[in-house]
Amino acid sequence: MLTKVDIEYAATRLVAGELVAFSTETVYGLGGDAECPSAVAAIYAAKGRPTDHPVIVHLSPEGDPAYWTDYLLPSARRLIDAFWPGPLTLIVKRAPHISMAISGGQDSVGLRCPSHPVAQALLRDFVRLKGGQAGVAAPSANRFGRVSPTSAQHVRDEFHGMTGVTIHVLDGGACSIGIESTIIDLSRGFPALLRPGHVTLEEVANVLGEIPQLPGQEIGNVPRASGMLKAHYSPRTPLFLLNAEEILSVLSVHPANAPMAVVAFPATLSKVSVLPADIFSVALPHTPTMLANQLYALLRRLDHMDMSCILFEALPDISDWAAINDRLRRAAATFLNIEPLHLIAKDNIIR
Fold first, then answer.
1. Keyword Nucleotide-binding on this protein (predicted)?
2. pLDDT in tens, 173-214
3. What is the structure's pLDDT at 309?
4. I need a labelling partner for 171 at 20 to 30 A (CA). Which of 53, 75, 107, 139 fits?
5. Rounded to whole angstroms, how far apart are CA atoms 4 and 10?
6. β-bridge partners, 282
7. How far is residue 20's CA from residue 32's CA, in Å, rounded to a whole number?
8. Could you write out the DSSP letters of every residue in 142-193?
9. Please, are residues 346 and 314 in contact by the beta-carbon 8 Å criterion?
10. What is the mean pLDDT of each run of 10 residues along the chain (351 residues)?
11. What structural domains and CATH numbers belong to the chain?
């Protein structure tokens, strides 16, 4: 059971310039003092993250976002009032006194106030011990490009055996949402959705009175925010997105001794009379909220099962599933140029 003493100790580690992995409502973050250059550098080094990829600064509920930006737009204030604390990140113009290290050298900075009680307690203790408008830079606590962690054990597994990496893990239990925050960019003169998440495009539009634009994923070939690469959130096991008919076609010609994982809706799985012994099947939940909560834990579980590949049924292409579709398409993009060996006929490969 996590205690106040545990949380305060973790805060002292942050003040000392060390790294602390902590739970949020979305995923576990790998945290360091956002205004300590060595701590920020240690985050990038531990993750193997390119230095031109920004990190998100996490603020306590009492924190002043205006400290981090040269001008807090009225639109930013409306979104903060509506969704903070919660799973919404805002990209705003970076104040001159804020280091470019946390923004990947760009003129913007990402800010978020998490709703998880452990994250809030840690941030409050950190601010109290350090003083001022302190914030914690905290990208997801995993190696760059890999599946995000939604439990403390995922973090331990991710960094186990890495030399020169010391991370204090604050176990706040499983993350309730399970995918990363929605990112809205307000630094360009118009609102833009950079990453879908639990806070939907429609909800943001209702607050702003306009629908955020959907620009290209990169500005000047540099990511504007976290998770913007085409290939991201990837398991080690090759993952292929197929429709129901393609999955059934693959299963009908499935060769012996080729263990595969099939993640599909119950209606699809019910059309298979007998699954081969080396097929591990998982029935998809019918709601995006349930799948978001389970997705990363499922991918990590399948990674430990020594499967040749994961066949994942394509989700409905509607707004309710947008956030999970975003994560799955990026996860599968890692393997678009890889032939899934002899398991899938050439005509069935998603291109």
1. yes
2. 999 999 999 999 999 999 999 999 999 999 999 999 999 998
3. 92
4. 53
5. 10
6. 263
7. 7
8. SSTTBPPP-SHHHHHHHHTT-TT--EEEE---S-SS-SPPEEEE-SSSS-EE
9. no
10. 95 98 98 97 96 96 97 97 98 96 95 98 98 96 96 96 90 97 95 96 97 66 52 87 93 79 97 87 96 98 93 96 96 78 42 32
11. 4-223 (3.90.870.10), 239-348 (3.40.50)
Residue that the structure tokens 């609102």 belong to = 191
Q: Which two tokens stand for residue 164?
A: 């020169």
Q: Are 121 and 172 in contact (CB under 8 A)?
A: no
As a whole number of angstroms, the distance between CA 77 and CA 36 comes to 27
pLDDT in tens, 87-124: 999 999 999 999 999 999 999 999 999 999 999 999 99
Looking only at the bridges linking them, the beta strands covering 136-137 and 56-58 are: antiparallel
Six-digit token pair at 22? 């902590």
Phi, psi of 320 (to 5 degrees): -60, -30
What's the token pair of residue 223?
A: 């990511």
CA distance 236 to 242: 18
Nearest to 93 by CA among 120, 113, 72: 72
Q: Which residues of 10-28 are buried (b: 16+ CB within 10 A; e: fewer)?
A: bbebbbeebbbbbbbbbbb
Rounded to whole angstroms, the Cα distance separating 62 from 123 reads 10
Identity of the amino acid at 240: F
Of 30, 15, 241, which Cα lies nearest the Cα of 141?
Answer: 30
Paired tokens of 282:
């998982």
